[in-house]
Amino acid sequence: MNNIFAKRRDRLLAMKAARDSYIPREQRVTCPACGGQFVRREVSQALWVCPGCGHHWPVGAYYRLSTLLDSGSFRELNGKLPPADPLQFPGYPAKLAEARRKTGLDEAAVTALGTIGGHRCVIGVLDGRFLMGSMSAAVGEKLTQAIETACRRRLPLILVSASGGARMQEGILSLMQMAKTAGALARLDRRGLLYISVLTHPTTGGVTASFASLGDIILAEPGALIGFAGPRVIQQTIGETLPEGFQRAEYQQEHGFVDAVVPRGQLRDTLALLLRLHEKGGRHD
User: Any alpha helices (H) in 108-221, and if so which ranges?
Assistant: First the structure.
């Protein structure tokens, strides 16, 4: 019976992952970084990493989960937690409806219970296709509930960020999610539980200034833009030329903001290793 349910969960995750279509459906795709042309199947087998230059295409939340979680372990949390329109912002309902239609998601975050390399964890992933992965009150609530689930079950937490920051259509209610998620993570930390933050392209604004930067371990995908304000805004503000690669993952690692830059093909194994080491370190034989 458990195998039947596991297969159903796998099929559900695979179907949802298949909808994560950042990339056009043509048989050949062109890398936006190096201009190389590749057979779509070849790029797909490489987890949407360019075989020529290593450029990492953005991927959707369910696809990301399908590459990280063990087969049959995916169990979604709070799947039906849609956004509201608290400020009655002009045009916001139409934008939400269009985002739902394009992505098949209710919101920009997907959270789940699962295992990675046999190690149980709570995981949350932001999806940049849904209004740039911006943090609404619903996104903040989903992430907070995921953090609280990790606290209750005494499980490690992994959050994968891809966001343009706070959602302007929800104003101060969106900004409040910065403190809300940070407060929940403080409670997780007091319980001695592990939090791994994974930063993907782009991770900016209020997400960077809150939960994305609070990990015990912070990983990043190659080339990811990571910062609060974008480099063009900073350059225009200070009137100076910025260093080459400024705010990219490799630059952030060199300056101590990121612990390691991990290619997508190695991320699952890296997370499994970290979870195993943490699990062993927490035992008192």
Answer: 137-153, 171-190, 205-208
User: Would the pLDDT of 1 be above 80?
Assistant: no
Alpha helices in the chain (DSSP H): 2-18, 40-45, 61-68, 92-103, 137-153, 171-190, 205-208, 231-238, 249-254, 264-281
Residue type, 280: K
Query: What mean pLDDT is predicted for residues 80-96?
Result: 94
Non-local (6+) Cβ contacts of 101 within 8 A are none
Q: What is the DSSP letter of 281?
A: H
Q: How far apart are CA 216 and CA 157, in angstroms?
A: 10
Separation of alpha carbons 138 and 109, rounded Å: 9
CB 39 within 8 A of CB 27: yes
CA dist 103 and 106 (Å) reads 8
SS3 53: coil
Contacts of residue 77, defined as CB under 8 A and 6 or more positions apart, other chains included, come to 111, 112, 113, 122, 142, 145, 146, 149
Domain boundaries in the chain? Answer: 58-281
Domain spanning 58-281: which CATH class is it, in words? alpha beta
Mean pLDDT value of segment 96-121: 97
